[in-house]
Please model this.
Amino acid sequence: MTLALRLRAVTRQKWQTHIPRRTTRPFHTPSRQFQQQQQQQQQQQQHQEDNNSRSTHFGYETIAESEKEGRVRNVFSSVAASYDTMNDLMSFGIHRIWKDEFVRALKPGSLHSVDKGWNILDIAGGTGDIAFRMLDYATNVKNDSKTRVTISDINPDMLAEGRKRSLWTPYGGTERLSFLEANAENLESVASESVDLYTVAFGIRNFTNKQKALEEAFRVLKPGGVFACLEFSKVQNSLFNAIYKRWSFSMIPIMGQLVAADRDSYQYLVESIEKFPSQEEFKNMIELAGFIVPSQAYENLTGGIAAIHRGIKPLHKAQ
Amino acid sequence: MNPTPFRAICRRVSRLQHGLRPGQMQPAKSTKQKHYHSSTSPDPSPFSPVETTILSSALTHVPTHGFTETSLIAGARDAGYLDATVNLFPHGVFDLISYHLATRRLSLKDEVQFLPETHLGIGAKVRALALHRLRANGPVIRHWQQALAIMAQPSYVPASLKELSLLADEIWFLAGDTAVDTSWYSKRATLALVYSSAELFMATDSSPGFRETEQFLDRRLEEVRSLGGVLGAVGEWAAVSGKGFVNVLRSKGVGI
Model:
């Protein structure tokens, strides 16, 4: 990026020294003009470099890293109340099937009643969608009433929504469910090697530094523990992809406008989906953080609109 | 006719076949699968070291717990991992079954070796290899019907059939068959059929040393041999009559 800019700046300089642009001001000799331009451009470059070194994506915009957290917070604060309605409308209710499939694939909970259950950390799980499903699975399928879930979210409004909803489930107010307001890139209140299963569903896309969050997941997981991620991904079929893109870019912001009275947040949503790495790229990021991935590293849902990624923390860190 | 192009075609065909190894079922496999048989360099295991550790210790629990998640979890625990670690196997118990199938198939070449001085025919070698492979199911035979039921689940059928075709291919290769004509296909198809029916028979065989399965296998192989002879005779008859028919037409002035 900076190299390209610099190259362009250099070519522009050469071009401009040969063409006296302002003939009305004869006192500006070409050499003086060159010096001035050089200084200006250096200043510009300096400015751009400052921004570039710590910049990140916010949808299609490029913003400073320090800004992203706040802006994502605003998006989710504004959508928290209408979160489910909008999800149902945007995905025709399929997001529920994805979440069910995600939990079924992970099979949370101990098989034997003598065991002490799993310690699950659900990151960016504010509204509790995944947490309640996992507790249901553990209780009803595995007959395990000891598995615990900690719902962590950076956004207090989403957590408040989750707290409210938990009162409608058998787990609200019990020790099996707890809430934590924390940044996934820095989970200092979670002890190292204390978690059996780390889940993040439709959340990691919004993180400022995804790799750092993956490394933090690696730290808090026990050896043998599982990192699992459900996230929008790349559609594999090009025809289906064209239809899907048309739907998401034209309809979703309009629906956001009509239902949630917030077009920008939903514009951000579709842009952030587009910006998220492909299945293979994300798999490489998981491996880079130190995890070993299954031989089938990811599982596509609905043709790749969403994908389930898994990583296992090895007993011994790879050499 | 020069056999080289034929061989090239067959190699390409077998390459296609081997492209359908378990490797393809698992798109993210980093270990490279060979697309041909090599007698000098062994096939790399289709399973990573951690997978091998967990699955091989899970297999020791199969005689007691069957092909179940309980065995898988017990295997993970034995290897020092957590219950949650079985997430390394997205297909769950089917991964345990395919580990059993793949390792038994790959160990055939080490366990059955024909000395050059024993002048066995290819048929006898195929019989010995198939029988050895069947006997390798012995320790888990009580749970084999359960395994077959899992393999027959619609989403696992393609992978199971692939594994069966790989086994048939392996047996013919180890028996020293070098045919590159269309019998390449018929040989593998019939052996796959014979082997799978014998496996099914063995699941309910309680005779000592699986003697009845051995007899069953011999009867099926004998049928194939006689059927193969009949088919060969029919083919020869068809070729001769076809030629005759063409000659009759030519004698009538048809420009063929």
